[in-house]
Specification:
heterodimer; A: Rossmann fold; 6 strands
Chain lengths: 303, 225
């Protein structure tokens, strides 16, 4: 039944595009509402019929993965959730994969955010991932959530020399001096890896400029696809690696499943979303071709 | 006096922050000034909240177009503010995490703010597709190059790129679409981004000097002199 539905959906999209192609040959432009319908179909069909593809990690993603993988157990990794709900569908699969990987490798995870909207997303991640999948991990020993502070890059300017000038407690009001995970931790310079996940300001770029580069601390990032091209100039010297958009998340998830058999059944939203992304890209490309045909036909007709 | 005080503060802060990078004895001053900045940044929330209330109450009072939405905006703001400030339904005490599971703040966030934000962002897919259809036309040589780069990236960001060109022998693997997409990102894109970044950095240096020396005064809300 699923296959029949899938075939019908593809037929509708294919025949529809062919019809528009024929119209383009006659020089007819496409109404934007028709484009919206096709994009809606291209996104929803793979979600309904669970179309997914196998992924292979590219070097820029593999570099982040093996940076975490090759750190000795018990290393300090800081995860910063620098995004809000609008960006979450695209970058949350990355933060979840980073969190799972770091905890599976028995690293100590310090979680914070430079966006006010990030604090609730951290709480959700702790509930849905750490408490559910890693019940043996103890808050304050294996991980800690120090939450949000206002100031953007100003926060980084301070915590690069002293955490306690900015953060006296964790989000539950527990003094940082009394939690075991913070013993011996003075500043960001005591971290073995900084990871910022975001796509806006402040985000990965600010972590590189105000923490990673001046403190000589390895920094990696996960970014929305639109912001990823802006970060390439920092790779590989100032930035260990980067997960760009859903594709980056899907590549990281596939690498995680390959290396850690216990994650074989973990939810992989990145891989799942590659189906809609692939079909949507194809439809966009088809419309670009159709648009160009209509453009050239009309240009030839003009005297 | 209205001009001299902010100009003096800007000069002192600017000079100290520059010196703190190069002279270790002044380093702690730079940290302190960063801390002051973070404290001032908190007041932006008060300013933002106050402004939101002012703008929307005015719209309601004057019954401007779509004033009903302003009521929803103010109600949403006040309910979320109360839920966060007074930690309503929070399982912990007043010092507990504002986003603790079960709190009204987190419930509103999860079931209203989160889906609304994601919905707004997802609309981009439709507008990007429509804009691509209209904008990516091979009108001239530059536009054609842009079009080809867009095709490579669009295909390279999906597994189809590998399915379509995976048959190309390893010795010519650079021609495989995913590798071409990486090349576009790490060569032409990188060169362009670096040029823009260096330009911006030089602009920031020039503007900072103008601010520190008091040449640029538009931030005071007045023209020169």
């Amino acid at each position: 039944m699923t296959n029949i539905g899938l075939i019908i959906s593809f037929l509708v999209i294919g025949v529809g595009l062919l019809w528009l192609f024929i119209l383009a040959l006659k020089g007819r432009e496409v109404d934007r509402r028709i484009i919206f319908i096709f994009i809606g179909l291209a996104v929803s069909v793979p979600l309904l019929f669970r179309i997914s593809f196998s992924e292979k990690a590219t070097p820029i993603v593999r570099d982040v993965f093996y940076k975490i993988e090759n750190l000795p157990e018990g290393s300090n990794i800081l995860l910063s959730y620098d995004y809000g709900p609008s960006m979450a569908p695209e970058v949350e699969p990355m933060s979840n994969a980073f969190l799972r990987h770091a905890l599976a490798k028995n690293h100590k995870v310090f979680i914070m955010c430079l966006w006010a909207t990030g604090q609730s997303l951290i709480a959700t991640a702790i509930d849905s991932i750490i408490k559910r999948e890693f019940p043996e991990k103890i808050n304050g020993v294996d991980y800690i959530n120090i939450g949000f502070k206002a100031g953007g890059q100003g926060v980084l300017n301070v915590i690069i020399t002293d955490f306690r000038k900015m953060y006296l407690t964790d989000v539950d009001g527990v003094n940082l001096d009394s939690v075991p995970i913070f013993k011996g931790i003075k500043s960001l310079k005591d971290m073995d890896l900084l990871i910022s996940i975001g796509g806006g300001f402040p985000g990965v770029k600010e972590w590189i400029l105000f923490a990673g580069a001046p403190g000589n601390i390895p920094t990696a990032g996960g970014s929305a696809a639109v912001a990823a091209p802006l970060l390439y100039p920092y790779y590989p010297k100032q930035m260990v690696g980067l997960l760009g958009g859903i594709k980056g998340a899907a590549e990281y998830e596939s690498e995680l499943k390959k290396v850690y058999p216990q994650f074989a059944n973990m939810p992989t939203p990145g891989i799942a979303m590659m189906g809609p992304q692939t079909l949507a890209h194809l439809v966009v490309m088809a419309f670009i071709v159709i648009g160009n045909i209509a453009f050239f036909v009309n240009r030839r007709r003009k005297p | 006096m209205k001009k001299q005080v902010p100009l003096t503060i800007t000069f002192i802060v600017g000079v100290v922050l520059i010196l703190s990078v190069f002279f270790p004895p002044v380093e702690t001053w730079g940290e302190d000034f960063s801390l002051f900045f973070d404290i001032i940044a908190v007041f932006a929330f008060f300013l933002g909240g106050g402004n939101l209330i002012r703008v929307h109450t005015e719209r309601i009072a004057k019954k401007k177009k779509d004033w009903g939405f302003s009521i929803i905006t103010i109600l949403g703001f006040l309910i979320m503010l109360a839920a966060g400030l007074f930690k309503l339904w929070n399982p912990g005490d007043i010092s507990a995490d504002v986003a603790a599971t079960g709190s009204l703040f987190q419930l509103l966030y999860d079931w209203m703010f989160n889906p609304l934000g994601a919905t707004m962002y997802s609309l981009l897919a439709f507008y990007v597709a429509s804009a691509s259809y209209r904008a990516f036309r091979a009108k001239n040589r530059d536009a054609t190059i842009l079009l080809i780069a867009a095709f490579i990236i669009l295909l390279g960001r999906t597994p189809l790129g590998m399915y379509a060109t995976g048959w190309i022998p390893e010795s010519f693997s650079v021609l495989q679409i995913p590798n071409l997409a990486i090349w576009v990102m790490t060569s032409p894109n990188l060169a362009g981004q670096r040029a823009i970044m260096i330009g911006i950095a030089l602009g920031v240096v020039a503007m900072s000097l103008r601010l520190i020396l008091g040449v640029e005064r538009t931030y005071l809300g007045m023209d020169i002199d």
